[in-house]
Amino acid sequence: MYPTPLYAPAGHGAFTDVYEPAEGSFLLMDALEKDATVCLEVGSGSGVVSAFLASVVGPGALYLCTDVNPAAAQCTLQTARCNHLQLQPVITDLVQCLLPRLNGKVDVLVFNPPYVVTPSDEVNENQKRSVMLHSQNHGLFYLVTVSENHPIVDVLRDSGLNGELCLTRQAGHERLSILRFSKSSLSTTGSQEPS
Length: 195
Ligand SMILES: C[S@@+](CC[C@H](N)C(=O)[O-])C[C@H]1O[C@@H](n2cnc3c(N)ncnc32)[C@H](O)[C@@H]1O
Fold this sequence. Notes:
By secondary structure, the chain is an alpha/beta fold. The protein is built from five helices and seven strands, in the order H-E-H-E-H-E-E-H-E-H-E-E. The protein has a single domain, classed as Vaccinia Virus protein VP39 (Rossmann fold, 3-Layer(aba) Sandwich). The radius of gyration is 20 Å and the shape is elongated. About 4% of the residues have low confidence. InterPro entries: DNA_methylase_N6_adenine_CS (IPR002052), Euk-Arch_PrmC-MTase (IPR052190), SAM-dependent_MTases_sf (IPR029063), Small_mtfrase_dom (IPR007848). Keywords: Methyltransferase, Nucleus, S-adenosyl-L-methionine, Transferase. Belongs to the eukaryotic/archaeal PrmC-related family.
């Protein structure tokens, strides 16, 4: 997926004694590519969150962004371009077209769903489908919620994820929260059990 960097000078001219990349080099790069961090934002909209994530984590990771709205995918691409970042928008419902290939392979999963109080069975289905992509052994899942949707923590606990309140802020008449889920409990200072 990632192009091999240009390495023309190695093994030639002033660099004759410099090891020219060979099979071992390419195998090593393939292994590194396989283990590279995968970030996925579901419902990327403008792409600003993924662009921010890409600025923080750096160019070594793959940034996938899904949205059902084709205009959002286009906008995400534009946001990436004007920030000189690489984002990969995909038009799909939630994570549908990424399954099963990315099952268990996503290291950072981000979802800021439309802010509506969602019936718990619907929460159940939507979040579980997304969570299937979450890395088997590590990885973090950041979910924007309103306080009425905090029961999602219990739903996802059944899928083996522990949730905690990461940040909370009043926005007009709504109290928005960022819930952070991981396979094992994070004991980050300032985090607490969501109520
Ligand atoms: C609240 S906006 C968040 C946009 C952006 N992530 C942000 O935080 O600024 C929700 C986004 O989810 C998208 N969306 C809604 N339902 C979706 C679905 N079933 N699958 C993928 N994206 C969806 C919407 O088109 C919208 O862009």
